Amino acid sequence: MDSIRKEDIIETINMLSEQRLNIRTVTLGISLLDCVTNDIDTTIELVETKLLRGAGNFVNTCKTMEKKYGVPIINKRITVTPISFLLEPLVARLGSKRATDGAIKLANSLDKCASEVGVDLIGGYSALVQKGITNGAQALIESLPEALSSTVHVCSSVAVADSKSGINVNAIINIGKVIKRLSEVTDKGFGNAKLVTLSNPPIDNPFMAGGFHGIGEEEMTINVGISGPGVIKSVVHKSRGVDMMTLAENIKKAAFKITRVGELIGRETSKSMNVKFGAVDLSLAPSPNPNESVAEIIEEMGIGSTGMHGSTAALALLTDAIKKGGVMGASSVGGLSGAFIPMSEDLGMMQAITKGSITLDKLEAMTAVCSTGIDMVAIPGDTTSDEISAIILDEMAIGVYTNKSTGVRVLPIPGQKAGEKVDFGGLFGRSQIIPVKKFAVSEFVQRGGRIPPPITSLRN
Amino acid sequence: MDDLKQSTERVIITVLGKDRVGIVSGISTVLAKNGANILDLTSTKMGDLFIMIMLVDLIGSKLGPSDLHKKLVSEGKRLRVQVTVQHENIFEYMHRV
């Protein structure tokens, strides 16, 4: 069979069937910088024309790839230029109130385009406010409760910190209030599943809710997010009793193969659409299904239940091995590229809350060695906006001081307390509500201003 | 990293299922009827499981890969085996640098 060995074919078939290997997302990034005008209706017209023309054939192309290679592509998504850039001239012309109304109109137009071209989500209803807030960014943040509660597919991210600028506490105070408001105006507070607060955001992230088509990118790009926790779990299972170095080596080899599938699908999709291929995101993306959980991999390594002491080391070994294996398999690596441990979307993580092995504090510690941060965490409905801001501050500090991306996507569930359960449905999963400690934080949070960047940012 | 082979339309067909009479003949008949040329064929057994792997050229085939896939899956159902059809590049890519 030429250069392909029978054993390799059987291994691939096994990965795709038993171990549920898939491509988690193919994401088409589209720049909207050429749609900036000072008239909202003209802007919307330009945006719609560009999205419908650019992405019209995207979902069908992905489907063709799925058939050709026998690899499921779970999500097809679009990212766009952070929308706050499109709002700047509107604020100057219309004032902030009417610009915010315009932003909501624009969010609904993005939603309509996403439906029309058949993608699952559209990301980039975003603002970058690491150091300070411009008028357009302020209008976008103010529009978030209504924009996200009146749309289905639109995802938003707000970058509030980076290692060179420090942490914008004023923005985090605002976001704390937005999160509270969103939890009140959307069913089960689900609107917050579509909003993430970020530090050091990558400009080519294919995953949601943090994906946007960043400044410095091509006109259009294809970015691919891989999955494959089941494949890694199987490798770890077969590596029972081996020492840590050997375990890392075995994970690396499997990560290479998983990444190659992403590389192939990315190259072929971009070629077929005549769009530049951006990057493969090496993140292991879990799901609420068995055999697709990152927590299960940690447990397969020998930790009784995720969150127990040893979990941070296990996750660090895993994340690093995935990167080392993956980097050889992809021509360009980007996005978040680290393991994801979203609380409600990962079966093992959900079980760990129920068993009591994981707490918010341990989760925070684990996020120092992976990429998503405090992700999809259901918290009690009575958590105050300052307490939410304090959770965000801690997570941003981890990102800023370790020079990595982190995010916070917490969902205060209205009327519900710690220990109660909530079901978001589909890939968003279900979760037990995790307790949040109740001591004073407001005096610290309300100081406002900006936490300066660490000395390690002065590298020139 | 070389560009993908585009000049050929070669697929790997894998057939998995409990061993029984007529699997090879059933699948190869569908291929022959539709002008798909078997370039290589190998089979193996893992316990009770029969595994057949074929390298097939679709250049001379009357059907496109997608239609042939449908026909093979339906024949697979009759034979109670699982049939997958994948472009050969995925195997090259996954197992070679």
Using the alpha-carbon principal axes, give the shape of chain B. Answer: globular
- Roughly what percent helix of chain A? 40-55%
Output mean pLDDT of chain B. Answer: 87
Sequence stretches where pLDDT stays below 50 over 5 or more residues of chain A: none
Number of domains of chain A: 2
- Derived from helix and strand composition plus strand pairing, the structural class of chain B reads alpha+beta
Helix content of chain B: 25-40%
N-to-C span of chain A: 54 Å
Assembly type: heterodimer
Under the CATH scheme, the architecture of chain B is 2-Layer Sandwich
**CA distance, first residue to last residue of chain B:** 7 Å
Tally of contiguous helical segments of chain B: 3
User: Gyration radius of chain B, to the nearest Å?
Assistant: 14 Å
Q: How big a fraction of the residues of chain B is strand? A: 35-45%
Reading off the top of the CATH hierarchy, the class of chain B is best stated as Alpha Beta
Rg calc of chain A: 21 Å
Mean pLDDT of chain A: 96
Count of discrete structural domains of chain B = 1
State the major sheet of chain A.
13 strands, mixed
Give the low-pLDDT segments of chain B. Answer: 1-7
CATH homology group of chain B: ACT domain
